[in-house]
Amino acid sequence: MGLVRSIVAPRRYLSSSCNIKAAVMAEALREFSSCDIGDALVKLKIPFGGYLDGISMWSPTRQGVGESPPTVVGPAVTVKLVDVDDTTAPKPDVHFADANEPGKVMFIQQPPHMYSACFGGLMATRAKYIGAAGVVVDGRFRDVREIQEMKLPLFAKQTSILGSNGFSRVSEINVPLRFKDDLWINPGDLLVGDHDGVVVVAPYLVDQVIELCRARKEIDEKTMAALNAGAEMGPTLKKLRK
User: Which of 120, 139, 150, 229 could form a disulfide bond with 143, CB atoms 3.0-4.6 angstroms apart?
Assistant: First the structure.
C-alpha cells in the first residue's frame, strides 16, 4: 500500500482554529485554476499532480457548457462506500449526508465496478442546507437536473438512473481514501474544482503551491501579451519560460 501523504485528525476532533486555518487556505487557493494548481503540484513531484482524472463538473453547469461558475474550494469530508454484501466492513453511526459541514467539500468514493448512483437529489438538498461548498463523487450520481437547479457544485465520473439501495452502502466517514496508486484524499485536504477538473492539495503544500502559481501566472500573462502582439510561440516560450 502506498504511503498516505498526510495524517489528518477525524472530523470530530478538528478544532475551530483548524477550521479557520482551512478556510484561509481555501480562499488563497481560489485565486488559481485547477490547471495552475496541478502544474504546481507536478513541480512538487506529487503523484499525478493531484489531478483526480475522470472526474468532471456536472453542476451547476456541465463542464465546458455555458459560463464558468466560481471555483469550488474546501476541505475534504471523505466518505467510503462498499458493496452492499460486504458484511465485514464497519458501519457509521450517522447518515453520511449529515456528516458534511459548512464550507467543506464531500468526497464520496464508491467501488469502481458500481453502475448505480451513490448520491442524488435528497442528499444534495441536505448538503445545500448545511452550506457545503460542493460534492465530488468518485463514481456515479443521479438527479442531474434537480441538482443543477439547486446550483450545488457537483463533480463526478458519471451518472446513473439507479439508486444505491441494493448495490452499495456507506462504510466509513473521514478516513484516508486512495484515489489511485499513491494519490490519496485525506480528511481536511483541500479540494479545488472548476470547469477543467478537480485537484487535491494537502494543507502542508498550500504555501508552496501558491508561490509557484503566482510565479507561473505572471509568466503566462507576459506570454499571452506577447502572443497577442504577434510574437512567435517558440522564441516566446524560450525567453519567458526558463
Answer: 120
